[in-house]
Every structure is written in C-alpha cells, then in structure tokens.
Amino acid sequence: MLDEENNISVVVVMNWVTHDQRVLFAMEKIMSENVKMVIAVRRDLSMRKGKIAAQVAHAAMKFLIDANESEKPEELKVSLSEVETEWLMGSFTKVVVGVDSEDELNQLILTAQLADIEVHPIVDNGLAEFNGVHTLTCAAFGPDKAEELDRITGNLKLI
Questions:
Q1: What does the pLDDT look like over 25-72, one tens digit per residue?
Q2: Per-residue pLDDT at 117
Q3: Which domains can be identified in the chain, with CATH numbers?
Q4: How many whole angstroms separate alpha carbon 82 and alpha carbon 86?
Q5: What φ, ψ does residue 74 adopt, rounded to 5°?
Q6: Arithmetic mean of pLDDT, 1-14
Q7: Which helix or strand (DSSP H or E) is residue 16 part of?
Q8: What is the DSSP letter of 130?
C-alpha cells in the first residue's frame, strides 16, 4: 500500500504464494477462536478510560512495528508467521486483562519470553499522565495460539 500524499509504503509479506491460498486459509480460519492476542493492563495506575484505550491500541499494533524488516523509516515491511496471518485474516481477537502492579506485569513479560511467546511492552512517555515519568502501562502477548497464551495469562481477570 502506498500513501501518495505522505510517501509512505506498507508491505506485508505472507507465507502463502497465491491469493487463492490466502483466501482459502482465511475462509477456513475466519470463525476460529484458536488464535488471539492478550493485552495485560496495569490497574494500579488508575488510568482514565481513554488513556487505557490508547495504551491498548499501541500494544495491539506493536507486534507489527517490532517485526519491521525495512531499513527505510517511511516503510513497514513485515513477514508474518502462519499464526499471525491467521489472526489478521481471521477474527482478530484481542482480550484485555488486568494486572495489579508493575512487578506482576514484568513477571508475565519474563514468563512469556522464557516460553518463546512474542511480547510487546508499552512504556508511556508520561506527557499526559504520570508527571513526565516513563511508565510501563501494558503489554501485548501474541498473537499466538490461545492455549499457549492461556498458560501465561489465563488466570487474569478481564478489565
């Protein structure tokens, strides 16, 4: 995709060779609930609803930014795994849960990393809240198979 006005290009590389294969894969998986992203948000920060929404939005997109393969600052080029493609082409399920502290969120992040699960922490710049202090607000886990994520985040309550 090329944004002519801003001269920004976005390239997403899928692991399938043909359009027909991507469509078939999407049709098979569209109703599937076996892939999701879990976003854990710190409740101890008492963020406003709008702030939580913004932080969760950052987290949901961070996996694409972290996977950027392009060396050009105006280009996003991402090779997607099969599970990431299933998530993007399917139900795009996101589950938002709460944690009680920075320590709890850091422990979840470490546990995910040790389990080889993609994790994408979000650190707020502190411009609108947190008195100018950079603050870990949330983290996205996945997208990945639900059973893998549930091993780490399955005990957390929805917010």
A1: 555 544 456 999 999 999 999 999 999 999 999 999 999 999 989 999
A2: 96
A3: 2-153 (3.40.1490.10)
A4: 6
A5: -95, 5
A6: 50
A7: none
A8: G
Residue pLDDT, tens place only, 102-139? 999 999 999 999 999 999 999 999 998 999 999 999 99
> CA 52 from chain center: how many Å?
15
C-alpha angle 123-126-131 in degrees, rounded to nearest 5: 140
- Full-model pTM: 0.81
Burial 103-137 (b: 16+ CB within 10 A, else e): ebbeebbeebeeeebbbbbbebeeeebeeeeebeb
Give the residue ranges of DSSP H helices in the chain: 19-29, 49-66, 82-89, 102-114, 146-153
Nearest Cα neighbor of 77 from 88, 66, 87, 91 is 66
